[in-house]
């Protein structure tokens, strides 16, 4: 990024961003429920199509003041989705000492003098019934302090059983949405994802990559927001075709075992390394919403 540009109030920009994240959440929830109703073969074909359970996640201060909140939307035990969460939040408050130190070390100006913050975004993780359908993660967000603002997010594919053509489709679609925002930007965000989603204690990547960015602030809020929107808009065309391609692939107990072991790896990353998980828990957001990313079942050998 070009440096943290002074934020001031930015009430209109914050509302615009929050409204977009909420609308993207609505679009994805609708698309995933539609995918639950498609033609299906295999062990879960006779299950009734699942629907999202929607739970408000209000946030209150020590004196009961309204600090925003969000919507936790989780679908469990479906024909296609074993567990998927699509969460939206727009929250505010005052950062704790640990978060203040972390942001000061990253170069956020004025955070020690005025640790107020506002953050909004969408966060999605899908764990699938069929081991041949890849798991997936996506989030986009805006963060504001009185002295700075920035965007972050991306999407990455996490197949227990990788297919080269699925990986190629996912990356090509991501690139088609991001490339118009600047020459060389897509390779930069792809490399960032490869670095961010690497699991040091296992010495391997979490999945087959995707895109990732943080601290995005070029000084042009509209341009950075447009990029963030296109990262979000790229998600459904990147992922829905993979569901359709793999949902009826026959699978064995060995495939299921591979899937559960992979989920253990996924859980390790999210609990040990993921910055968003740490921030959500440290700032007192709803723990169930923060930990929505964890798989319903996992296995360690």
What is the percent of helical residues? Answer: 25-40%
Straight-line N-to-C gap = 41 Å
Beta-sheet strand percentage? 15-25%
What is the count of helical runs? 9
N-to-C SSE string, H for helix and E for strand: HEEEHEEEHHEEEHHHHH
Number of strands: 9
Quaternary status of these chains? single chain
Main sheet?
Answer: 7 strands, antiparallel
Shape: globular
Q: Please give the radius of gyration in angstroms.
A: 19 Å
With strands numbered from the N-terminus, the spatial order across the biggest sheet is 1-2-3-4-5-6-9
| Unreliably modeled segments | none
Mean of all residue-level pLDDT scores = 92
Q: Please identify the structural class as seen in this structure.
A: alpha+beta
Name the descriptors:
single chain; 301 residues; alpha+beta; seven-stranded antiparallel sheet; two-stranded antiparallel ribbon; 9 helices; 40% helix; 25% strand; globular
